[in-house]
């Protein structure tokens, strides 16, 4: 196998498609959004990208059948006049800095072959604490793209996220801009500790408004409710631990 091997799985005609990138990252926000789109729409896997930068492993399905680790592009023909979607998702990112550049270049090659001229990279911004009100932050390759996003309540903050945008999400903007492709990064605020369906929904709501498609949120809302139960249990355990520590401190000062 070559360093990067692109398998042509199927052909699907897409009208004015935009690229939606949702690989694993903070809170799995981008991945949750991408998988939700693939599940809710009539999607079809059109390309698989294999690379020696991915972990040396295979996945095993419910029937015990294996498949080599890969990233996948799914084509989605959206109803109405909104642009069609080319959704990139997978379970892994590259293992080296050079690998990120090579893989992102390959991803852009695939996107360009479908006529994509705008890419949306999705991710999360860690806050270090549980989030109650979810804000979506943005970054763009062209200042002219900000107006539409700000109308959808996307915030642009100076020097945020701190340290910049890393991985494929960042390089889609950097390398995409060098190819003349418009690119936008949408980042949902999240604690950074847990998979965050609520933050993913906030990002998806912005994406829906900006691109113009409509999608059912029910399954994502169900996952958010399940995660809220987990968070509630964690908060309860933390509260009990704090009370225990306070009780221990009180005992130290007796006598």
Automatic annotation (TrEMBL):
InterPro entries, sorted: MJ1210-like, Proteasome_assmbl_chaperone_2, PSMG2_sf
Domain of life: Archaea
Pfam family, one: PAC2
PANTHER family per record: 3-ISOPROPYLMALATE DEHYDRATASE, 3-ISOPROPYLMALATE DEHYDRATASE-RELATED
Protein name as catalogued: Proteasome assembly chaperone family protein
Phylogenetic lineage: Archaea, Methanobacteriati, Methanobacteriota, Stenosarchaea group, Halobacteria
